[in-house]
Amino acid sequence: MKKRECLALGRLSLLVVALLLVAATSFAAKVATVEIPVNTEMYATAPAPLAPAQCAQCHNAQFGNLKEKGGKHRFACQDCHKSFHAYNPKKANYDELMPKCASCHTDIHGPANKDCSSCHTNPHTPRVVATTPRLTNSCATCHAEEKQEIVKFPSKHGSFSCDKCHHTKHGYKPSCAECHKPHFQGQEYSTCLKCHPVHRPKQVTYQSTEPAATCGSCHTQIFNKWKATPSRHAKVNCATCHKDKHGYIPQCTECHKAPHPKNILDRFPKCLTCHLDVHDLPAMKK
């Protein structure tokens, strides 16, 4: 009996092993749902790197930014991006993968301004720089000459922070019309800077051809008197006498060298003793 039992048990064990092998084979066959032949030809050579136009097929926004406002950053994507599609949320390796400004740029704004992305928020539009507080507090780092002018020549412009005028973005140049009215109706705002340097606006200089109406907007009483005078001075533009610099008071002898005999000039050395008002000279009696 024992011999038969051992034989039966052995046969049963073999049957179980056979069933397990069949089950394992069946399970293995179900892992692959389709038959895909190996393409050794595809992997025989290394592929060429993607061209920027190919990157743009997916990253069209970044490509468009570089195309329109990329400045000197318009070169092959691989020159900055050494790894592609390697970000792993579990590793949180975004900063590790992203290009570093220092790889190409030195401290062009000084050692105190190394946090590039606080101003250059988009590397694909590097010259589009928002006027943030970080930027406003650093203007003098690059624009030292303008800062010196503001301090040396006090005016109301010096009481404002830079972003009051240069708002929106770095490089924005406002029109004077945003704050100021023209000297006279119809005056072009493009003429403002011919007289008023923007960072020292009270240091007024002008050409002799500057219209008298410009002067008349502030010097109204004198301007009206000058317009109505019957003397020849009414035909002389203000800037011809008050030349070059605002506030300049000319001497009569600059135009009238010796209008009277010497004995009269010696007796009356000051012309306005007789001629009273330079803007409205007394009419000569005939």
UniProtKB/TrEMBL annotation:
InterPro entries: Multihaem_cyt_sf, Paired_CXXCH_1. Residues 109-147 form the Doubled CXXCH motif domain. Residues 1-28 form the signal peptide. It holds the Pfam family Paired_CXXCH_1. This is Cytochrome c. Keywords: Signal.
